[in-house]
Every structure is written in structure tokens, then in C-alpha cells.
Design goal:
By secondary structure, the protein is of the alpha+beta class. The protein is built from six helices and four strands; from the N terminus they run αααβαβαββα.
Length: 224
């Protein structure tokens, strides 16, 4: 009788464990689908933004066209804040998923978008004498070593703190520097940034930073 009772307890425990295991798999499947759907939505939005900013780039390239500087600067700041938030969200999603060829390809769209945004920011700043600062963060995306990962974690934390503190005064533009994008490589070369040097922060198209320990160091360079 005791043996029969123990057998029942065993089967009850087994069924409960199987149920919990199946529930965990189902929950993981739902979460994975939810993340995939969110990433797809971000990528679709990035395609629209990419087209929009390409048109803006063409408009700012027309020398004799009149530009509403106040409106251009405000819209540029709003766009910068949005792609900054999207960059944080995308990074969170990518960390939760296995990096595949498709994700790398989609990530290139964001690199192109941010690169075009950077070019627009330079044009607006020059034409409208805007006072914001461009901080372009070139990082190693595909196969960073453990040492580089640790260094980039420090860079990301410091730049995030800086963005939170200074808000619209800073255009924080993260761009993967090793994604085989010709336009990015051309810009890196023009500012003498080698892929082997990543991560690198470029401040106002003038100052190249490869080592930092605090946001105060960046603040000091901005205020020079």
C-alpha cells in the first residue's frame, strides 16, 4: 500500500514537472515571437526613416534653397532622440536573440540610417550655426573579443550617462564600424579611424577618443 502511494506521488510529480516544462517552452516561444515581431516593426520603420532622411539630405545639399533653421534643428534633435531610443531597444532585442546573417543585414540598415543622419547633422550645424555636438560612436559589432566587449560596455555606459545629462545638446550616433559598409568605411578613413582601433568616439568631427574612464573626460573635450 505504501509502495502504491509512493508510485502515485512519483507520477504526480512527473506530470507536474512535464506541465511546467511544457509551459516554459510555450512561454519562450511566445516571447521569441513577440521579440521577432518587435524587431520586424523596427526594421520596417527604419526603411521609411532611411528614405526620409535621404530626401532630407538631398534638400540640404541644394545651396540656394531657403531652410527654416529653427525647424530643421528641432526636427533633427527629435530624430536623434528617437534613433537613440531605438538603438537601445534594438541592442536589447539583439542580445536576446542569436546573431544571424539576417540580423546583421538588417543592422546595416540602421548603420546607413545613422550615417545619413550624421551627414545631415553636419550640414544643419554648418548652415544654421547650431550649437549641438555630434558624438559618433564607432564600435565593433560582429566578433568583438572579450576585452573589446568590456571596453565597449564602459564606452556605452559613459555615453548613455552623457546623453541623459545633456539631452538635445548632444547628438549621440552609434555606428558599427565593421559591417562592411563602404560609406562608413570612407568616413572612417577620412577621419583616420581604423577598424583595428575600435571602439572610437569622434567628437564634432575633430577629436578622436580611444580611451575614457568617465563622462567628465568627454565633457572636457566638448567644452574645449
Amino acid at each position: 500500500m505504501v509502495f502504491h502511494s509512493q508510485k502515485n506521488v512519483f507520477w504526480q510529480a512527473f506530470i507536474l514537472a512535464a506541465f511546467v516544462f511544457a509551459l516554459g517552452i510555450l512561454f519562450g516561444f511566445v516571447m521569441e515571437n513577440s521579440r521577432s515581431a518587435s524587431i520586424e516593426k523596427l526594421y520596417f520603420q527604419s526603411e521609411l526613416d532611411l528614405l526620409d532622411i535621404r530626401i532630407q539630405n538631398d534638400i540640404y545639399s541644394i545651396e540656394n534653397i531657403k531652410i527654416d533653421c529653427l525647424g530643421a534643428v528641432q526636427e533633427n534633435i527629435k530624430f536623434a532622440d528617437r534613433i537613440y531610443e531605438e538603438a537601445k531597444l534594438l541592442d536589447k532585442y539583439e542580445q536576446a536573440n542569436k546573431i544571424t546573417g539576417n540580423i546583421i543585414l538588417q543592422h546595416k540598415k540602421y548603420d546607413l540610417l545613422r550615417t545619413l543622419f550624421w551627414i545631415n547633422s553636419i550640414k544643419i550645424k554648418n548652415r544654421c550655426n547650431a550649437s549641438y555636438h555630434n558624438l559618433v560612436y564607432f564600435y565593433d559589432y560582429n566578433e568583438p573579443s572579450i576585452e573589446i566587449r568590456a571596453k565597449q560596455a564602459v564606452f556605452s555606459r559613459i555615453l548613455s550617462e552623457l546623453k541623459e545629462e545633456f539631452g538635445s545638446e548632444v547628438m549621440l550616433i552609434p555606428i558599427a564600424g565593421d559591417n562592411d559598409i563602404i560609406s562608413v568605411e570612407l568616413l572612417m578613413n577620412s577621419y583616420e579611424i581604423a577598424e583595428s582601433e575600435l571602439p572610437v568616439i569622434l567628437i564634432d568631427e575633430k577629436t578622436k577618443v580611444q580611451e575614457i574612464e568617465s563622462k567628465e573626460e568627454i565633457i572636457g573635450l566638448i567644452k574645449k
